[in-house]
Design brief:
By secondary structure, the protein is of the alpha/beta class. The protein contains eleven helices and 13 strands.
Length: about 325
């Protein structure tokens, strides 16, 4: 394992003979990525600059704690624009991206909107349009129904982008012209699963065109690599994240494949079933890209109340990515 920093949490108030010891391997990088941080900032700054309410189409990111915190500050979350009354209040589009029809409808209603789409998702949208202009049939590797997939497929006319979720679907896919194919991917997929699908596509369609730089984002890749690093050394591993968070669910799968016998997705420390952790000696903890660090701290705190705990921060990469905020929030009044 790479860079390790340890911190001891002792149960001084307990009888040493009855307190079990626990080592927590804390994966890094973890938690908020640059796209999520930017999206949350957009809502917060909009609230500061324009006041409440600020409407947000879909959850700004997939995390209940984040959404509830913003709701308390004055954000109103809706699933579709038609839920929003006539208003001059800002409307924010979530980090996952939206179909082209959404900003078009917002413009028709003269809405003031701020686009919090992650720039790395926007990159995939641009790729899709570029392939389409070249006359290529487009395959999107992703999960049906995920907001990012809905948004990406919605960049082009219905039916233009074909969704593939598995290697099995590659085997049955029938292109219009095998020599005129391109693929793009959802940004939050399993790196290994996606590579298997890409390999299968290339084997069947050697001329298929892929992205110049892979679409799976740096944060997804880094968090999966960090989990792979600690998973073989853990009795159990907790991914702090939401059940509708694609990147968080992939971290659970990655941990199990990498050799951790038990991995689970928990939204907060309140969800811990202590019966599952009675015999644990080494626990791995990470967080999905939309989970704030405060939830990780609370998770560690919960275990420190029951165990004589040593926390080892195990880092596999440094991240210093930052994305610009929308022009409207960078301008002074």
């Amino acid at each position: 394992m790479n860079e390790i920093q340890s911190k001891q949490f002792s149960r001084r108030d307990a009888n040493p003979s009855t307190v079990r010891t626990l080592t927590i391997l804390l994966a890094a990088p973890r938690g908020f990525c640059a796209g999520v941080d930017r999206a949350v900032q957009i809502v917060e700054l909009a609230l500061e600059k324009y006041g409440a309410p600020v409407y947000v189409r879909h959850e700004i990111v997939h995390n209940r704690y984040v959404v509830d915190s913003l709701r308390e500050k004055g954000a109103i979350f809706v699933e579709e624009l038609d839920e929003i009354p006539e208003t001059e209040a800002p409307v924010v589009f979530s980090a996952h991206g939206v179909p082209k029809s959404v900003p078009e409808n917002a413009e028709k209603r003269n809405m003031f909107f701020l686009d919090a789409t992650c720039p790395l998702v926007s990159k995939v949208h641009v790729e899709a349009e570029r392939h389409h202009k070249k006359g290529l049939e487009i395959i999107l590797i992703g999960h049906a129904g995920h907001p990012e997939v809905v948004g990406t497929m919605g960049q082009l006319p219905e039916g233009v982008v074909k969704l593939i979720e598995s290697v099995a679907q590659v085997e049955t896919f029938r292109p219009q012209d095998p020599a005129k194919l391109a693929y793009i991917t959802q940004t939050t997929l399993s790196v290994d699963d996606t590579q298997e699908i890409v390999d299968a596509l290339r084997q069947r369609f050697p001329d298929i065109v892929g992205p110049h730089k892979e679409d799976i984002c740096y944060a997804t890749t880094n968090r999966q690599a960090a989990v792979k690093n600690i998973a073989p050394h853990c009795d159990r591993l907790i991914v702090v994240g939401a059940p509708n968070s694609s990147n968080s669910k992939r971290l659970v799968e990655v941990a199990i494949r990498a050799g951790c016998p038990h991995a689970t997705l928990l939204q907060s420390a309140d969800e811990i079933d202590w019966n599952d952790f009675r015999d644990v000696k080494t626990l791995g903890i990470t967080a999905g890209a939309s989970a704030p660090e405060i939830l990780v701290d609370e998770m560690i705190g919960a275990f420190s109340k029951r165990f004589d705990t040593t926390v080892e921060n195990v880092s596999t990469a440094d991240e210093n990515v930052a994305f610009k905020l929308p022009r409207q929030l960078r301008e002074s009044d």
